[in-house]
Amino acid sequence: MKFLLLSRHTGGREVPENEREQNVKDLMEWWSLLKASTALPVSGGKSVTSESTEEYKGEVEGMLVFEAESIDQAVEMAKKSPGLKYGWTHDVLKEMTM
């Protein structure tokens, strides 16, 4: 099954300067564990409705597409994120079959 993981920094702390290099290594290892077919950090953008286009004010700062056997396995994989200790939240969404 395919899953979408949306990353939001919802508070907490920034990665301290002396931990940044290790955090990047840990992040790359985590992405490798997920075998993400898409990993995309995002910043800024637009929100579009049928009536307007405005600056994006949401919290999403990244997304990953990855595969897992079940939602439970996908959640367990998300829990291994090195960003959680710095205030990141990950929303794990299952692909809808059509």
TrEMBL record:
Family named by the database record: Belongs to the YciI family.
Span of domain YCII-related: 1-88
Taxon lineage: Bacteria, Bacillati, Chloroflexota, Ktedonobacteria, Ktedonobacterales
InterPro entries attached to this UniProt entry: Dimeric_a/b-barrel (IPR011008), YCII (IPR005545)
Name under which the protein is recorded: YCII-related protein
